[in-house]
Amino acid sequence: MAKKKELTVEERLRALYDLQLIDSRVDEIRNVRGELPLEVRDLEDDVEGFKNRVQKLKDNLADIDDQIKSKKIHIEEATGLIKKYTEQQKNVRNNREFNSLTKEVEFQELEIQLAEKHIKEFSAQLEQKNTVITTTKERLEERETHLKHKKADLDAILAETEKEEKLLLDKSEEYKKNIEERLVKAYTKIRTNVKNGLAIVPIERGASGGSYFTIPPQVQMEIASRKKIITDEHSGRILVDAVLAEEQKEIMEKLFTKL
Known about the structure:
The protein is mainly alpha-helical and 259 residues long. Helices cover 78% and strands 5% of the residues.
């Protein structure tokens, strides 16, 4: 097996900056998507939640409706008993039997009143729950419409960027194979620790890219000589000179246009 060619410091810097440009391009694509995937997931959860609530309310309606039916049956039975006891009163043998039947009639009348009271309460609950169902359905429809639009936006962005992102990620892995493992690890660690994912930055106006900390002239000369890998003492980023950065940008832009 052929031994991997030992890269010069300059070649390592160029390879690392190329890798940075590829990974930054991936970051840009993901930034375009932004929070859309999370928004879609949240809306899907909302829609599911509203659907479950509507179903639960409908189940409650069915239970209340069954209770109303039960009370109506109870009223029919009590009415039948009142009729029966009233008929029996016509054939009583003494006052004791008459009074006993009168009490039974009064009890059934109270049962009817109580059942009617419950029916009234249940009917009020039905009305209130139907109002809640209507409101919940309106909110559900609103969320479903919002979700539909957000999904369409996300699908459109994915259609535009998914293929390019995969090709770039493949390129990133390909470029990593040509760089020493220790440098890739260092690059990955720096990239993870910095906010904008920039692990390799060029010198701009005497300071490291995106920083206000000036690089001493002597250090700038060392960076431009490309004889050793130098990091910014403030951010920990690896520094390259502006000329090298510009050259690699031109090369990588041509690569990106082919993807």
